[in-house]
Design a protein that fits this description.
It comes from Bugula neritina (Brown bryozoan). The protein is of the alpha/beta class. It has 16 helices and 23 strands. Helix 3 runs parallel beside helix 4, helix 4 packs across helix 5 and helix 7 crosses helix 9.
Length: 507
């Protein structure tokens, strides 16, 4: 008989024939008479490859998250023009929030004074800002853009602001309109409230000399779908002189694949003035107008693959997801930092577990409830002092309801996630999520309607027993903490009789 021979076989193929990337299988056996006898299989763990994030994502500029205590007096900063300073004071704004006094000078410093060209001929660095809702991001991008454009002598479309939904576009438009008052700047809004033909008349004018149509606005606030409409069908709509592209709620916009709007935009901007080229001696000597991108969101993605679509130039990230004392603990297993999703410091967050029979499915979808006071929450479902805001209601009516709420004419707004992103509703003290949020981003934007601008606020999420485990896992994965809140019968007792009276009156 042949002498046994020792064999070692290394394989990463599992028993079913599939490649096992998580292990390296080593088999040690003996060959006897031409047959190999294998003993038990031993697996050795192979370390998972960790993704290396770009340097600008790993080492951001940290924005102070303590809005209440880290404000700067308006008169103590020199980068704000006298005209804008006066307008801010007129609007009862005497201090700048951290995101404002850190981001505004960075945008202003990227431009040569009284010129739209960048310093040293280098393309300006794009700005990305991830900060909690209500931290003042809208003024952080609107004020420097207005201040830089108001010195221009000719009318060209130089700033484009893109937002995911029409209601949010209207809100941002009002901010630009307010702070450009007293200048020659013309701000326009195209969000579908007017017909396409009416918007076309507003966006273009006929040149007295050439008799050709040309752009009649300096700043345009729009939505992705409407932007594509005007690029495709509006004669004289010219984006070749665009200097600033501002994407607010950028994570939501990147999910918007409607009409492939980003491809349309890039071709409209670069086809005539030339596409960006690598930095060389020749490119530095050219006088090409640079396009600077400003990205803002409370839940800004750190996924490089998604951000790659925007072709960012030497981007700089401002984020308040961590404190300055903390190190950047990067979770390489996901697409975000540990602690990426943050909520305002003044926000108290709770979840309430209730029995399934007590949490009935409403006849119409209800996701979020905004209330003036915690007490009004207890009867919001049946009280006469509440209003509904949903996609079935006209934009004009939604605006009226928000105005009534701000003026305390109504105490409660019952809505879907339509209003859970970006919209600034005054004096919301309590947010109630009746439906469990499906994603962490949805939760962040829901609860972010309260505790804005350094004010206190409360957020409650109502869950049944089956929803608690998923909700807690979702919150934990984002490095957040939400406390459980138990509601006893004695707490509800004062409202029982009132609820019965209202129900009886409605029968």
């Amino acid at each position: 008989m042949d002498e046994p021979k020792c064999l070692t076989v290394s394989s990463d193929i599992s028993e079913n024939g599939d490649k096992d990337e998580g292990s390296n299988v080593q088999k040690v056996g003996f060959e006897i008479g031409g047959y190999t006898v294998l003993p038990d299989v031993t697996k050795t763990k192979v370390e998972k490859v960790k993704r290396k994030l770009p340097a600008w994502l790993e080492s951001p500029d940290v924005v102070e998250s303590d809005i209440a205590n880290k404000q700067k007096p308006l008169d103590s900063v020199s980068f704000i023009s006298d005209r804008i300073r006066a307008q801010l004071k007129h609007n009862q704004i005497t201090h700048l929030f951290p995101v404002q006094w850190q981001v505004i000078p960075e945008i202003l410093s990227s431009v040569i004074p009284n010129s739209l060209m960048s310093k040293l001929g280098l393309p300006p660095r794009d700005i990305c800002c991830s900060a909690p809702t209500g931290s003042g991001k809208t003024l952080a991008f609107s004020l420097p853009v207005i201040q830089l454009l108001e010195t221009c002598n000719t009318r060209r479309l130089r700033a484009l602001v893109v937002l995911p939904v029409s209601d949010l576009a209207l809100q941002v438009y009002k901010v630009f309109q307010d702070y450009s008052e007293g200048t020659s700047l013309k701000v326009a809004l195209t969000n579908g409230q007017l017909s396409l033909a009416e918007e076309q008349k507003m966006l273009t004018t006929r040149n007295d000399v050439t008799e050709e149509l040309e752009t009649a606005v300096d700043i345009l606030v729009t939505t992705p779908g409407r932007l594509v409409d005007h690029i495709s069908f509006t004669q004289g709509f010219d984006l070749t002189q665009l200097r600033f592209l501002i994407l607010d709620e950028v994570d939501k916009i990147l999910e918007e694949v409607k009409h492939d709007w980003l491809d349309y935009l890039e071709r409209a901007v670069y086809d005539k003035r030339g596409w960006p080229q690598p930095i060389t001696a020749a490119s530095l000597n050219s006088a090409a107008l640079p396009l600077q991108k400003l990205l803002f969101s409370a839940t800004l993605t750190q996924n490089p693959e998604k951000l790659e679509k925007l072709r960012l130039c030497e981007p700089r990230l401002f984020t308040s997801v961590i404190s300055k004392e903390q190190s950047m603990d990067v979770d390489h297993s996901d697409d975000h930092f540990t602690g990426k999703y943050t909520t305002p410091q003044g926000l108290q967050e709770y979840y309430i577990e209730c029995r399934v029979p007590n949490k009935q499915t409403p006849s119409t979808p209800i996701s979020v409830t905004y209330t003036k006071t915690e007490e009004s929450t207890c009867v919001c479902w049946i009280s006469g002092h509440s209003s509904e805001v949903s996609g079935d209601i006209s934009k004009k009516r939604r605006t009226q309801i928000i105005r009534q709420f701000s003026r305390s004419h109504i105490d409660v707004i019952i809505t879907t996630d339509l209003m859970a992103r970006g919209l600034d509703v005054d004096d919301v003290s309590t947010v109630v999520s009746y439906d469990s949020p499906p994603y962490i981003k949805t939760y962040i934007h829901r609860v972010g309607r309260t505790a804005r601008a350094g004010k206190p606020g409360q957020a409650y999420t109502i869950l049944n027993a089956k929803e608690v485990s998923y909700f807690r896992k979702m919150i934990k994965s984002s490095s957040k903490s939400v406390k459980a809140r138990k509601v006893g019968r004695s707490e509800l007792a004062p409202y029982v009789e009132r609820c019965k009276q209202i129900l009886s009156a409605k029968e």
